[in-house]
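A further point concerns the way the authors explain their paired sequence and structure data. For illustration, here is how one protein appears when written out as sequence plus structure tokens:
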Amino acid sequence: MPLRDYLRFLTQPLARDCDINSPSTTQLRRRILLENPFLRRIYEEWYGAILETLPAGPGRILEIGTGAGFLSQRLPGLITSEIFQIPGLDLVLDSCRLPFAAQSLRAIVMTDVLHHIPDVRQFLNQASACVKPGGAIVMIEPWDSAWSRWIFTHLHHEPYQPDAERWEFPSTGPLSGANGALPWIVFERDKARFAAEHPQWQVVSILPMMPFRYLLSGGVTYRSLVPGWTFPLWRAIDRTVQRFGMAMFARIVVRRCEDPDRPRFTNPSLPR
């Protein structure tokens, strides 16, 4: 069976022939997420990884690209947002035009969102105005490795261009426009450029993770390949294998510098 036909066979019946840029598709993905126990546990683990790195202190926390997620259940007071209107949101906003007062946010959090932002420089400049000194951007994003590069190039519908010279890309739609390699490009491949262009931000840590589990879960598009009860087994396998450089995602923590004269960049640690 050709790969294209096989992937269509694996596609969730609910997700077939859906317009990825439609708000109704995002609502459908929420249903898929909540009904897939393996995938839901992946999101719970991602949310735990985000929560453990949030800076303490006063100030609201904004989630950009809430989409089908449920982080607000874990983080009371979270400001939820999306680029289009869906039920239950606090705000509809453009990540490159953040409508918040100066230094009013303690943190911005994102799950699978940065690689959809067509002008990441503008977003970082907007965030530097809204996030207070000592605050942070904490995100879960696709990450480049030899393994993930093959997966994202051959099995994923989103563009994946690790050789792209520019950080920007054309916005073909709110969710279809993307470069899945963008987080790796900005924070690893072009880290010297990031430090020079955005001295107000300091990379604190990059934690590559999860080489197999998201793929096995089927995500929000495909059928799960494994039953929910196997999650602990695959978590142990993931944590073992990622020590050898295999990963599909990473948790990235970027802190808003308190003193513009402090050292402005530290080589990201890559804990396994």
Notes: The longest helix spans residues 37-51. DSSP finds nine helices and seven strands in the chain.
